[in-house]
Every structure is written in structure tokens, then in C-alpha cells.
Amino acid sequence: MEMASQMHLKLQIHSSGCEIMVEIIDVSARAAAIEYAIRDVVVPAVELEKQGHEIIRMNVGDPLAFDGLPTPKHMISAYKDALDNQKNGYGPSYGIPELREAIAASETKKGWACDMDDVYVTHGVTEALQIIFASFLEPGDKVLAPGPHYPPYMAYPQMYGATTVEYRLDPTDGWRIDLEDIKSKMDESVRLLVLINPNNPTGNVASVEEIDGLIHIAEQWPKCTIIADEIYDGLDFTNKFVSVASRSNKAPVLALNGVSKVYFAPGWRIGYMAWHDPSGKLGLVRDGVERLLRSRLCASTPAQFGYLAGLTDDTDWLKGHRSRIKERLDFCINRISEIEGLECEAPGGAFYLFVRISSDKLSSDDKKFVLRLLEEKHVLVVHGSGFSPEYGHGHFRMVCLPSIEILDEAFNRISDFLGG
Ligand SMILES: Cc1ncc(COP(=O)(O)O)c(C=O)c1O
Questions:
Q1: Is 182 in the same domain as 45?
Q2: Which of 125, 204, 227, 400 to mutate to test the pocket of ligand 1 (most atoms within 8 A of CB)?
Q3: Which among 71, 87, 164, 397 has most CB atoms closer than 10 A?
Q4: What pLDDT score was predicted for residue 2?
Q5: What is the rounded distance in angstroms from the CA atom of residue 321 to the CA atom of residue 246?
């Protein structure tokens, strides 16, 4: 009887054309709880596109979707050469040695002694996160992440029975880290303390004092490891970026980075984690990580050669990409300052703006704001609460990568929407 009450029965049309009653198979609670706001809002946008509307998409942080930000040619040639030379087999599970060496050299340049054995190549930072969470977390554990943050930091830990607690970034002071808030939320169950620097979605670049303060807190908790997601490090416009690993001589740090943002090839799906373990306490968890890496075979072999070319060749090309991004960011900040009803802290890096909706009436439901803006003006941004239920509501995130001409049109529509 009890079994029957849990069954989900549904009338379906069978391929023979007859109606039949079927029992719908349940989804796991893990998968059903996953949300990824950045792509979830695409569903209604696609519906509008099907009806013939042209949508200005400012939701996904993919530089390749916009003019003037291509993957550098020498990286593409290296990828193609790898394909042509039949480097299409499975590679070593931790990454091809040439790339691990180049990553270690690049991390060492940032100020800490990174050996190639400290580097594990993954299918993007996203896969590194999945592997880290799977290896560190047990039910009841906590991940302390900035609020707001890039959504997988909230979505994945719950798959292991852990929870993500957010620490406050100060919305009135450039989204600085609130160290007192971190202190008040630390306890024995916090296994991972996350810093995203520069931050997505706020663009804040942490100062060396903020970083040292965060490391100092982590040091007081022997079970805590720092995740330093530095995937936007080459897009720091303040020149104050410092690597977290370079500042820590006690607390362990996992530095995350990859080809997606600063090397303009997110579709290649290559990233890495570099382990800085100055006190030598991560041996067991590292063994777990290596087991998981071996069990998922390897990252894409030819794509690793493409990234290798990016790391080892001249990076002068980056100047042009950086200045185009800065120009577009500045344009957006300027336009927002002219629109009544919107406010924004100037970001130090990355290519996002996290915009505050100042009218109480509109800000009370930021998702509704975003869906109405999409429906009425065909501009797609992402609701702030998708980046933090607690600290993101009343905001939206926009990607500032479209050309100035398209950005101008988007702001005209946003301004119209707000009645200005
Ligand atoms: C902070 C942050 N980390 C990681 C990623 C994803 O990195 P990857 O493409 O290497 O999986 C993103 C993508 O937007 C991001 O913003």
C-alpha cells in the first residue's frame, strides 16, 4: 500500500498509439536540487527566440560569444597539430607532463614553489571542484564560500551531504571580504574556505591584507583547506592581484585556474588544481583525489596541447583582449551611473557587473525583474539571488563583453524598462 502511494503514475501515449499508464522513475534528490541560474534563464530566452525575437544575451561569461575576443591563433594551431599528429589517445590521468610542467612554472612565477607533481589537469575548474568536493566532504561538513559566488560552490557540496554557508562580501565597499563574518562562521566542520579572486559575479579583487586575513583565520582551524579560484587572474585591472598560495606558509591552498577565461577557450574544457600543502597535511585526501582522477581516465589530450601553447608562448596578444574588455566594462559602469534605479560598485577585474536594483518595489523579486526585462525588452541578464540567496537578492549580473554598439542598445532597453 505504502509503495503504491509513493509511485508517480502518468498516462502516456505508447509508440503503438495506445494510451498506457506508466510508473515514472524518480530522480535522485541530489540531481533534483541542482540549480545553475546562469543557464536556467536561457530556457525562456530560447522560447522567445523561437517566436522570432532577437535577444541580447548577457548571461554567460563566455568571451567567444562576443566580437573581438577570439582564442589566439597559435593556441588553435597547437591544438590542430596535436590532432594531425594523432595525439588523440588517452593521456596520463593527472595531465600530460609538458602541461603540468608549464603550469607549475606559471604558478611558481606567482610566488610559490610549485612542482609539476602538485598539478592535476582537469576538464575545467568545474571538474576540479567536483573532485575536490568528492574527496574532502562528508555528510555534515561545510564549505564556506563568498556571498555572492559562482553557483557550483552552492550546487555541488550538497551532493555529498555537506552544506555551503556564505560569508559576507560588503556590498557598499566594493564587495570587500568581511573577515569578521568569516571568523564568526568558522567551526570544526568547515573543511573548505573558498576565495574567488577576482570574484564572479562582483569583480572584486582581494587586497593582500584581505588575503592574509583570510589565511590567518584558516590557520586557526586545522581541518580547513583554502580553495583559491583564480580563473580570472589575468583580467585584474587593479594590478593588485596576488596568488593566495604565495601568501600561505601554513594553511593548505588549492589554486584553481585554466584555459577558459584568460586564454579565451572555455569550450576546450581544460583547467587545473595546483596543491600547495606547506605543512604536509593533505596526503590522505590527495590519495583520494588521485584515485578519482584515475577513475575518470584523463582530460582531453589535444586540448591540453592547445593550453600548453598558451602558457609557453608570448602573451602579448592578451593586451588587446584586456583593453577591449576594460573599455566595455567602463562603458557599462558609465551607462549604469546615468540610469535612475540602478547602482553598481566598480569592479577591479573579470568581466561582470553585479548591479543593484535600487527601487524597493523592483528589487524585492530580482528573478521576476530579470524575467520581465527578458519578456518585455529582450535583454537577458541573471538574477542576483542565483549567485547568493542571502547576499545577491535585489541585484542582477550582467556580462559586459558585447561590443559597445550592442551594449549601448542593451542599456537603452534597460533604461526604457525602468521608465527613464
Ligand atoms: C569563478 C569561476 N570558476 C570557475 C568557472 C568555470 O571554469 P571552467 O570553465 O574551467 O570549468 C567559472 C566560469 O564562469 C567561474 O566564474
A1: no
A2: 125
A3: 397
A4: 43
A5: 27
Ligand 1 mean position to 312 CA, how many Å? 22
The answer on 155 and 251 residing in a single domain is yes
Q: Which domain holds residue 143?
A: 73-312
Nearest-5° Cα angle at 256, 143 to 286? 70
User: What global pTM score does this model have?
Assistant: 0.94
User: 88 alpha carbon to ligand 1 midpoint, in Å?
Assistant: 25
pLDDT tens column, 236-263: 999 999 999 999 999 999 999 999 999 9
What is the pLDDT averaged over residues 114-124?
98
Domain tally for the chain? 2
Report whether residue 71 contacts ligand 1, using a CB cutoff of 6 Å.
no
Q: Are residues 352 and 240 in the same domain?
A: no
Q: Could you tell me the CATH number of the domain that includes residue 191?
A: 3.40.640.10
Mean pLDDT in residue range 112-140: 98
Please give the distance, rounded to the nearest whole angstrom, from the Cα atom of residue 350 to the centre of ligand 1.
11
**Ligand 1 pocket check for 194: Cβ under 6 Å:** no
Residue 30 CA to ligand 1 centre (angstroms): 21
For residue 70, report the phi and psi dihedrals to the nearest 5 degrees: -75, 165
3-state secondary structure 213-254: HHHHHHHCCCCCEEEEECCCHHHECCCCCCCCHHHCCCCCEE
